[in-house]
Amino acid sequence: MIRSFNLIARLRAVPAAALLAALTSTAPAQAAIPFFGTQFDASAVAEADGSAPEADWQMDGDTVSAQAASVGDVHAATAGAFAGPGFLTVSADVSAGTLSHAVASAHFSGSFLSTGTVSLSLDYNPLTFTEGSGAAATTLFVSLSNGGATLFEDYVQGPWSFSYTPVAGSTSVLDLTLSSEVSAAFLSPGTGNASAFGSVAIMGAVPEASTWLMFSLGLAGVAALGRRRSRAAEVQA
């Protein structure tokens, strides 16, 4: 009888170990933010002296891009923008001896729900180059709200992180505007070259409801298994 009980205990320990291993791998799991009601915008404007200006603007609920170029024999200005799920990028360039400029902008807005603490991270990388009368700037404006209340609203200078615990079932809204702008012979006379680039990747995460459900069910299963083993030991005794 004791030998039989030991065999049963060992056989039952196998699914218990597997269940505990599953709990270990799923309990802390997080998923990329599941945005809904998303909107993407991309715009580009370029104007070089002596050449026709050009502008492009696109808006959609998914990936969009825009580009513009104003290129003459001596002066040139170009701009491009891309906005897609989880990633925005912009660039603008100018090379001119008289007043010329270019600007590119990418915008994203999306809502999401969460059942636990939100850890939001933005990998923002701006880059600019200027020479002579050239001027360049890249900016990222971040707006984050929850339940209609503003949590953060400001320009950021580099990689950015923000954590908060919203009311379960409440809606959060993330809004990003990334822009690059360049000019020549605007702040000072003479020939100038300028380039501006920026990219931002959304790297935050929120707990998945299904993960916590699996975790709760797993704990219940372990408890039930323990009770069955306890009863079996009493019977054998």
Give a quick rundown of the structure.
By secondary structure, this protein is an alpha+beta fold. It is built from two helices and 14 strands. The radius of gyration is 28 Å and the shape is elongated.
Helix/sheet category: alpha+beta
**Cα distance, first to last residue?**
9 Å
* Main β sheet profile: 6 strands, antiparallel
β content, as a range?
A: over 45%
The structural domain count equals 2
Number of strands: 14
Helix content: 10-25%
How large is the radius of gyration? 28 Å
Mean pLDDT: 80
State the helix count.
2
What is the helix/strand order? Answer: HEEEEEEEEEEEEEEH
Q: How would you describe the shape?
A: elongated
Low-confidence stretches: 1-30, 208-230
How are the strands of the biggest sheet laid out side by side? 3-2-7-12-9-10
Furnish the topology, listing elements before pairings.
Elements: H1 2-26, E1 31-32, E2 36-47, E3 54-60, E4 64-71, E5 76-84, E6 87-96, E7 100-113, E8 118-132, E9 135-146, E10 149-156, E11 160-164, E12 171-184, E13 192-202, E14 205-206, H2 209-236
Antiparallel strand pairs: 1-14, 2-3, 2-7, 4-5, 5-6, 6-13, 7-12, 8-11, 8-13, 9-10, 9-12
Helix pairs in contact: 1-2
Keywords: Signal
InterPro entries: Ice-binding_C
Protein name: PEP-CTERM sorting domain-containing protein
Structure in words:
- It is a single chain.
- By secondary structure, this protein is an alpha+beta fold.
- It has two domains: 2-29 and 212-236; 31-207, no CATH class.
- Helix content is 22%, strand content 54%.
- The chain is built from two helices and 14 strands.
- It has helices at residues 2-26, 209-236, and strands at 31-32, 36-47, 54-60, 64-71, 76-84, 87-96, 100-113, 118-132, 135-146, 149-156, 160-164, 171-184, 192-202, 205-206.
- The strands form three sheets. Strands 3-2-7-12-9-10 form a six-stranded antiparallel β-sheet, with no helix packed on it. A six-stranded antiparallel β-sheet has the order 4-5-6-13-8-11, with no helix packed on it.
- A hairpin with a 2-residue loop joins strand 5 (76-84) and strand 6 (87-96).
- Mean pLDDT is 80; it is low at 1-30 and 208-230.
